[in-house]
Every structure is written in structure tokens, then in C-alpha cells.
């Protein structure tokens, strides 16, 4: 896992966008490098820019849901409502373009493995419903002050909250 450390630190906010912010957060959360990763702030800004539709500086439940669905649909290339392992493989080339072939392959494989762990019914693909079992409780965990909004400060905890139970 330590081999991935320099690659993770090479990830720019541009490649975070390519990876889809929530998946980038997963990668950060599950690598030992994430604690020192300078991109937690970049990631928070990116999630905010993609999710905060009315630009009031915080994400409410509706915006969260919409952002999660949008990211899911962007990766569901054939539009069948499932993320197949083939569709996850398709992340390879845009990520490789950002951080190089070798690192790109590793990061894409990491994302693929993480996503497929959500495949509860073991049909080899992840539905939005399965995906939501991760992202629904995540919103509540992020909303530390329980005001039904996730603000920029709360978003900084994203990688950490992603793996906490
Ligand atoms: Ca908002
Ligand atoms: Ca699909
Ligand atoms: Ca809050």
C-alpha cells in the first residue's frame, strides 16, 4: 500500500474531478498517505463546487442526493443503472492521462475494488441503491453540527468520514 503514496500525492484537483470526488475520497480514505495528503482541501472545494447547486456555501440533503446521482450517471456509460466492472475500467484512461499510465492503472484498480465492495447482491455490478448505502449515511456523518447542511469545514472530514462507521 505504501507504494501508492507518491502517486496519491501526485493527484491534482483536476484528476480528482476525473475520478469523481466521492471515489477520490474513498481512495484517500483507504490509503495510509491520506492523512498527509495536501488535497483534502482541494477535494472539499471540488465536492462543494459540484454539489452546491445554489452556491450558498453548503450542501443540503437534496443537493447531496443530486450530486451523488450525477456522479453515478456519469460513470454508468450504457445507462442501465448499474456500474459494471467494464465501466469502472473505463476510468483507466482519463486518470492515466492525468497522473501517468502506471499510477493511473493502480488508482483506477483501487477505485474499482472499492466500488465493487458495495456490490451487496454480488451480481458483479453496483446499482445506485447499493451505492447509496454508502452515500446516504455519509451525509449524516459529515453533518457534524446536525443543521441538515454540510458546509466547507465539515467537508474537510470527507475522507475520514467515508470509512468511519
Ligand atoms: Ca447549497
Ligand atoms: Ca452500466
Ligand atoms: Ca452541518
Give structural notes.
- The protein is mainly α and 165 residues long.
- The chain contains 11 helices and 4 strands.
- The protein has one domain: Recoverin, domain 1.
- The two termini are 22 Å apart.
- The mean pLDDT is 81.
- One calcium ion binds next to strand 4.
| H and E order | HHHHEHEHHHEHEHH
**Approximate helicity band:** 55-70%
**Helix tally?**
11
- Side by side, the strands of the main sheet go 1-4
> Could you state the oligomeric state of the chains shown?
single chain
Structure class = mainly alpha
The biggest beta sheet, please?
A: 2 strands, antiparallel
Shape: globular
Spatial extent as radius of gyration: 15 Å
CATH superfamily: EF-hand
Give the class-level CATH name: Mainly Alpha
Task: Summarize the entry for a quick read.
With 165 residues, the protein is mainly alpha-helical.
List keywords for this structure.
single chain, 165 residues, mainly alpha, Recoverin, domain 1, two-stranded antiparallel ribbon, 11 helices, 4 strands, binds calcium ion
Topology:
Blueprint: H1 5-10, H2 13-19, H3 21-29, H4 40-51, E1 58-60, H5 61-75, E2 82-84, H6 85-89, H7 92-99, H8 101-116, E3 125-127, H9 128-142, E4 149-151, H10 152-155, H11 158-163
Antiparallel strand pairs: 1-4, 2-3
The structure holds calcium ion (CA) (3 copies).
Amino acid at each position: 500500500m505504501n507504494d501508492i503514496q507518491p502517486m496519491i500525492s501526485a493527484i491534482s484537483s483536476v484528476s480528482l474531478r476525473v475520478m469523481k470526488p466521492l471515489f477520490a475520497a474513498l481512495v484517500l480514505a483507504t490509503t495510509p498517505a491520506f492523512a498527509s495528503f495536501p488535497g483534502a482541501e482541494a477535494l472539499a472545494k471540488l465536492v462543494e463546487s459540484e454539489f452546491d447547486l445554489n452556491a450558498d456555501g453548503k450542501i443540503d440533503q437534496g443537493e447531496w442526493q443530486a450530486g451523488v446521482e450525477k456522479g453515478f450517471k456519469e460513470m454508468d456509460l450504457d445507462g442501465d443503472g448499474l456500474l459494471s466492472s467494464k465501466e469502472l475500467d473505463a476510468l483507466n484512461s482519463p486518470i492515466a492521462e492525468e497522473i501517468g499510465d502506471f499510477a493511473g492503472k493502480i488508482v483506477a484498480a483501487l477505485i474499482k475494488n472499492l466500488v465493487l465492495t458495495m456490490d451487496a447482491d454480488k451480481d458483479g455490478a453496483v446499482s445506485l441503491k447499493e451505492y447509496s448505502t454508502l452515500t446516504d449515511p455519509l451525509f449524516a456523518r459529515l453533518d457534524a453540527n446536525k443543521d441538515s447542511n454540510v458546509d466547507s469545514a465539515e467537508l474537510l472530514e470527507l475522507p475520514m468520514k467515508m470509512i468511519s462507521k
